[in-house]
Amino acid sequence: MYISLKSMSWRVSFYKANKEQPLIIKPADEDGYEDVDINGEEIINNEGTQVWQDMSEEERNNHDLFVDLRPDDEDWDIFLVTKKGLELFIRKYEKENAEMFKNLMNPPDADWAQVKEGYFRRKFFEWSQHFAVERDLDKTEFKVTNSSYWEYTIFNLIHLYKSFDFEKYALVLWGG
Question: CB–CB of 1/15 below 8 Å?
């Protein structure tokens, strides 16, 4: 699977890779694009970007949570994520959600007042356009929503946590 680094803003994706096969992660250059090839199946895309960027160096260097697979000269992140690491993502989302709702209930400034105003309009749009619930419920075993709202996105991660076979597969995080 190839993902273009130039055509996207920084985001996080999770991949499922069979542990019985060698994990192949290689930069590729086709037609002037910088790509990365991961021998996995993309299961969640653009999840946890802010949460991942907010991880401390201590957390990223804790092998009980993550195993760094980055080549030294690359400007992207690639880590194996343990079940404990995925739980950390979920707990950080939980904290971010609580803070977001606190600010929506009592906007601390004019910027949050504008966020509050647009929040419900966007929610209506997502529900009316079928983004809140995966359209094809049989499409993937791990994704339950296409919503980018943190309070929905966390359910993809919880579902992944409860259904991912960490014994048979490696959970690979790529960010770039």
Answer: yes
